[in-house]
Design goal:
2 domains; mainly alpha; elongated; 3 helices
Amino acid sequence: MANELKTSDKAEVKEARKKEGLWTRIVRFLKDYKGELKKITWPTPKQTAKNTGIVLAAMVVIGLFVVLLDLFFQQIIKLLSNIG
């Protein structure tokens, strides 16, 4: 917690940033952006292929479930319409 800024320090930093020029803020943003990109853990091609397979399988299962529900409700509607 020693790294945290005090409230007065935060206010000073905020004021200093307001006075910065546009290009200074853009450069700082791009440096921060680059630093954040380095922190990302990218999946391996093998993990990506595995995850893609899982998503495709889930899509097929859910699609079949929806088709079965559709057929089921069609039959119920046909039965109800034949009664009336």
